[in-house]
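Subject: mismatched residue count in predicted assembly?

I count 638 residues in my input, but I want to confirm that the predicted structure covers every chain. Input:
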Amino acid sequence: MNSIIEVSGLNGQPLTIEVIVGMRTARDLRSQLLDSTYALQGNAQVFLTLLFKCGFTPERLAKELAAFRRVVRPALADRVHVVAIDHQQEIEEALSSRVDAHQLQALRNRLLEASTGAATASSQEAVQYLLLRRWLRGLPPIRTADLAVQSGASVPTVLAAIKALADKDVLRTRDRRVALQGFSPDSWQRWLGKSAESPTARYVDRSGSPRTPEKLARTLATLERKDVAIGGVLGALHHYPALDITGAPRLDIVVHGTPHADLSFIEQLDPGLVRDDAAQGHAQVVVHFANRRESHFDIQKGAVWADVLDCLVHLWKGGLTHQAQDLMAHLTQQANRLKGQ
Amino acid sequence: MDDTITPYKVLMQVANAIPEELRTDIIIVGSLAASYQLLKNSAQAVRTKDVDGMVAPHARAMQSAARVTERLLNAGWEPQASAHYDLPGTAQTPDDRLAVVRLKPPGEVAWFLELLGAPPSVVLQADGSGRRSSRLRTAAGHFELPSFAYLGLAQFEPTVSEFGVRIALPEMMALANLLHHPTIGEAVMGQPFANRSIKRSNKDLGRVVALAFLADRQNEDALDSWKPRWREALNQMAPDQAEQLLTVAPKGLQALLESPPDIEQALHTVNNGLLSATPMRADQFVIAMRRLLQAVL
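Triage response: the counts match. Full output below for your records.
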């Protein structure tokens, strides 16, 4: 998902707003300031960076900005702004002097959506997901800049994601392209552990006669939604029929979008389902979100299946460790076979 | 008084009392049929007093009903007396004083068998009425044999029980009730239902929800087949009106869904009737309604 939003600011001055979640280092901040400045050359735009869940104190942020303004021409530096957002109302405060009042509400919602979803999209796990996906398909090494575009992450995040991988897993080419050349069990576990932290929506049965996951999946197919895919055990069985499991304990589905996506279609799956994210007991349906540019869904004969890596994360997250390891081993074997060809 | 009965026991008693060649002319409808079809694995008792038997087909309903009545009376079954009707009826008894055939087995206090006739058509008459009445002449006197148009749908592929008598399909009983109540009518039942005054439509629509709930619990795909089965039955029994009747069928349920006081009444009837052993909560009742509507709309 793109975390850059362009709007018309006060007096018609173009305003670019970039949402960044989880920035921690001064190096990333300086890089962002520099990128913003480059973006303003030769135009009259204003560039506003909103930092959500950042690791800077107000003093540290002010100090960095002051240092930036000392070394950059005022004509450019004055059009570069960085604001840390700790509370939702601070979004409006940051925007109110820059956009018309009538734009505020809609823009605030877009930014909130970007800020909630961006944590996954731009995270290192998302970058690693793309590398894993390419490895499983036997695709050639890719430029880091292209990885940044495809994942929606900044180049520093892409580099950090690659650095976080075990050296022996990464193939680097002379022309600065990267690919995976393996993925150790430890690497799988680290990636799964992080990926499993992404937000979900959980639905429990209130009818007293819950639908089976298979029935719910059949009903989902009748809705003909191309942006909602079957994941979890059913999805894993689609990709790997030999998976060591007899039935799905629940229906995992993946919505291509952010956690703010409209989930009212769940009522059509079964009127007995009620959302209860805090439910300690068994959930009948768990909704995950594929907050990335491409859904990577597999559409076959009217059925929409989540990417096998998403299914793997669902197994892991659902405590089906044995089955997750079974699928991991299968995928590793498959990737190694492709490499040998 | 505990007025629960067990479907197997009652069906065996009814079947044993009537000649073998007439057994398949009886189609059991109502609570007992529902509990036979949907609760048979649970050996669950059902709370009802009347066991409704429709004599079919229409062409020989009078003859078969007369023979069944005579046989039961000879076996000691007792007709239910009422001040409003003449028992035994004679050739001189006016039609409106004729009693329906309502017979209690010897020594039985919990239930009675009531005979209905298969209607000549499942389509309403020109005046909008679905009820017809015929004078049933038996060796033991005259009775009334009523028939109800939509209930004729119970003749569609009934299950033949191990006792010989046939049992109406749940989805056909549901369709008959739905067509009978496309709106929440104001008419109230003649007798209180579990100590409460209840609208007739709420009782019958509540029954539809209970049937759907039980069918769904037995097989989660069951409701998916209801509409195709309704279409099949209507195409066979009312081909000129099949599509129009299919359109009308869910309307009463949609009206019920919009009316919490009527839902409450309907729930009271099912929890004191078909589902007395395993009562539903109000939210479960609404979910069952929504699931059915989703399947048939």
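Chain B has two domains: 4-154, 170-296. Marking this ticket as 'not a bug'.
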